[in-house]
Design goal:
alpha+beta; three-stranded antiparallel β-sheet
Length: 104
């Protein structure tokens, strides 16, 4: 099997697994076999992820780099969700305290 570029591999993954709305995961052995690569460097994974983001998908690994996850990216921007906390009652500004001067 010939080694695929990150772009070729991303397009193939989208065509092959894009119908799985919940996403899929692949083992390191699966990814090596499917990509034609003997080693999986982080720059290859990052390049595949970059190519997939153009299609609304993401591709990342777990911390041990044993499993690789293909998933749809959320359509709601994180700021839209985070703004609901903008008026939280437990957040208080830090004010300047008045300094008292002691005469001595």
């Amino acid at each position: 099997m010939s080694m695929k570029s990150a772009k070729e591999f991303a397009v193939w993954m989208i065509e092959r697994f894009g119908d799985h709305q919940a996403g899929v995961y692949l083992s390191k052995a699966d990814l090596r076999e499917l990509s034609g690569r003997q080693t999986l460097r982080q720059d290859f994974i990052a390049d595949v992820h970059f190519e997939m983001t153009r299609h609304g998908m993401g591709f990342v690994s777990d911390a041990t780099k044993e499993k690789f996850f293909l998933f749809y990216l959320p359509e709601v921007h994180w700021k839209e969700v985070a703004d609901r906390y903008a008026v939280a009652s437990n957040i208080r500004p830090i004010g300047r305290q008045k300094l008292s001067q002691h005469s001595g």
